[in-house]
Amino acid sequence: MNPELQGRVFAPTPPYLVGREKVREFARAVFATSPLHFDPAAACAAGYPDVVAPPTFAVVVQEQTLAQLLAEPDAGIDFARVVHGDQRFSYSRPIVAGDELTATLTVAAVKSLGGHNMVTAESSIVDATGAHVVTATSTLVVRGDE
Amino acid sequence: MELAVGDVVAEKQYHLTRDSLVRYAGASGDFNPIHYRDDVARSVGLEGVIAHGMLTMGIAVQPVVDWLGTAGAVVDYQVRFTRPVLVDPETGADLTVVAKVGVVDDEGARIDLTVTFNDATVLGKAQVRVTLAGA
User: Fold this and answer.
1) pLDDT recorded at residue A26
2) ipTM of the complex
3) pTM for this one?
4) A interface mutation test: which of B19, B70, B74, B131 has the most A CBs within 10 A?
């Protein structure tokens, strides 16, 4: 892996429009049952403009940025050797249907440990007004030659 | 909501099948074939098809979301993926989630998750930061 990746900032992704049915589909897929994810009236009663996405929904938007990283010509990351090490979401507010989200990836760290390489990718996700919604951080472990 | 460190706020079991993985692949857009093809999974050294780590992470927080209801919100959630969840084509896989209060402070609480499959934990440092209305 190319150590010069550290600190690199990628171009913002095209806006992702969060659809109500996508939120429901994702919620069903993670076995969610809260009416906040399915029923707009329940979400409105709780003070949200539309159905609320489950906490890990941000990965759908983050995924576009990880694709940018893996496709970077000089990154030297072999996808077949990549293992997801850890994951974090830090929210300023929940994602709701109707949000138009844009993600910008920064390579926060590149490390070598015991023959493996680790890259920490931090994707800052903002809404149409530019206000921060959530930062999704993944550490990817790239296994060395064995 | 009165909380004390060590309180178990939720405990739940989930049964995963290969269907669950296909559904999550479609919903999330993660079509890595190790989550639906045994031959590909074996070619990278796994025993067979495994669940998406992000599916396990997504399920594990649900007992906390249900417990909170409208009384709070998840503001931070992190996990470490420590062991794969092998999903048998016939019998699936059973996950158990126990959510326990780890910290109580001015900002709310930290809920620590223990997620087990076949009597072993599959997530490390699985922590959910929640704010509590009126706290």
Assistant:
1) 98
2) 0.96
3) 0.95
4) B70
